Amino acid sequence: MQILNFILSIIEDTASSIFSNFILKRIRKNKKDNKEECKKSVDEKKYKTDFAKRIDQLMFLINQEKYYGFEELNLSKLAEYLNLESVEILKQYYKESREPTFQFIDSVAEKLGVNHNWLKNGEGEPFLSTHYHLPEYNNISRNDRFIFAFRNSQDKEFIFVKYYLDESKRYKYITYIKSVPFNNEIGYGGLSVLKDAFKILKKINSYNPSDLEMICKLSNDEYENLRLGKIYPGKVLNYKVSPATFLLDDFIDPTGVTDDDFIEFYGSEIFKLRNKLYKYMKR
Fold this sequence. Notes:
The chain is of the alpha+beta class and 283 residues long. The protein folds into two domains: 50-121, 434 Repressor (Amino-terminal Domain); 137-281, no CATH class. The chain has helices at residues 2-45, 50-64, 75-81, 88-95, 102-112, 116-121, 188-207, 220-228, 246-252, 259-266, 268-281; strands at residues 145-151, 157-165, 171-181, 215-218. A four-stranded mixed β-sheet has the order 3-2-1-4. It comes from Lactobacillus paragasseri. This is HTH cro/C1-type domain-containing protein.
């Protein structure tokens, strides 16, 4: 009996020690978690308004892409870019707990090419485009410049990115998130999109032929992030022109491409469409 009690006491002491260590670890972890939460809370407290917080997020995203239009965007340069009388107009939203008017936010969003809803209330993504379709053929002007952002994969598709100089002589971007397919398995809907796309390409070619060489290859993630408005569209200008211009040249100029080579690369359905496009483009 004494031996049994001795064994039980050892077990009890061991369990107590394990439990104590468990409690001690939990206390230490809670202290660490509380410290992290406190740090987050302190970071949040520097923002008196949600508008100020989103402005900082916006400048971070633009600077992250090393956009050539700003050496390093800061609050003073942003105020100047927005044609404000003073940087204090922006600074007040960091100092005072008073959000700007919707009219002011809309003005800032319009000038920066930012998603209005995101800047107002955090809904959506910062650069989410409202242009879900292709550029409007009749509204393309000589001053509009285009870049073709290709998905760097076997799926061969691209999206139009339009950029132009605004009143402040800064480039502004519009991303048209409707993908234009170039693959062999293209269906009827895809053929219709491709036909519309080449009507647009024909007009771009007549205004700025060099734009047809403005092709950047993006990884799958970058391509999707551009379409979803998670990255600054100016990112596309950081890429060197890709030698993949043949993806457009094969349609615009048939010289040097045999029918067999074209069919092998694009497929018979695209080949049929190309012939229709040639007839259309010769009108």
